[in-house]
């Protein structure tokens, strides 16, 4: 039982609902063009570090002929993924000890995972389970644009809460989060140095702007609520991991403030009071073959 990531770093809902947006079917063609997979073949696809499963679920919809497996070492993510996504075999496992035979997959894919694992371990594991000429796809979130609406601004109470929490939080260093981050030029080098060929890079831009006219009300609400889940789970992480330093009253007040902000933003949206807050993700996709 390992729940380090879901407890200390990012909660299941934070990952799930943000990835539901990032991998919404409206963006599928942009991803699929860069994945460049053989649509005729009955592909065996493995997602490594699948988190709470939203991307694997998207792959199951985008490649209905494929057989899709997804692994993560966080037990809570795997439990959540099994409950929320269909058409994928979710397995609790470590990337460095994949429970699969050599040369058993046509495609291995990951999203925002490479930066947490030593490159030699990360790529060797994938080389082993890929068939000859198999495809390795590495997705990585790069610097994007984030302009929140005015109503999300932190008040003095929140600022003091997060300042205090920071003092006791060493989880980023402790669990090597982002320790192996590489820039856009170094990333393909690392893939090549670790045994992959025919490497190509590409980028997908995902624009999440609730006030855009081509965004449906359901999708706009989902954008706002994904931020709500993330805010609430960040507070819950403090509640679970630093309970000796924070009272129930402080935690509840933080949750009330957070919920109130997202309620305000929903109301503004519903009343057509434009805010033009925006979040634009730049997703780098590296494609290499074994
Ligand atoms: C930033 S999260 C990304 C999760 C998911 N790919 C997504 O985009 O929502 C990184 C994930 O890698 C997983 N992870 C990190 N090291 C791992 C390892 N050695 N074996 C399996 N999973 C690992 C974590 O549990 C976490 O779910």
Structure explained in plain terms:
The chain has 290 residues and is of the alpha/beta class. It has one domain: Rossmann fold. It is built from 11 helices and 7 strands. The chain has helices at 4-9, 12-22, 28-35, 54-62, 75-84, 119-129, 156-168, 171-174, 186-193, 217-241, 248-270, and strands at residues 44-48, 67-72, 88-92, 105-111, 130-147, 197-208, 278-289. It has a 7-stranded mixed beta sheet with strand order 3-2-1-4-5-7-6. Helix 2 packs antiparallel against helix 10 (217-241) and helix 10 (217-241) runs antiparallel to helix 11. The chain is globular, with a radius of gyration of 20 Å. It starts with a helix and ends with a strand. The relative contact order is 0.17. The mean pLDDT is 96. The site of S-adenosylmethionine (SAM) has 19 residues, from helix 2. S-adenosylmethionine (SAM) binds at residues 5, 15, 19, 49-51, 55, 72-74, 77, 94-96, 111-113, 116-117.
Which stretches are poorly predicted, pLDDT < 50 over at least 5 residues?
none
Strand/helix succession: HHHEHEHEEHEHHHEHHE
Rg for CA atoms: 20 Å
Bound small molecules, deduplicated: S-adenosylmethionine
Order of strands across the main sheet: 3-2-1-4-5-7-6
- The termini sit apart by 33 Å
Supply the CATH architecture. Answer: 3-Layer(aba) Sandwich
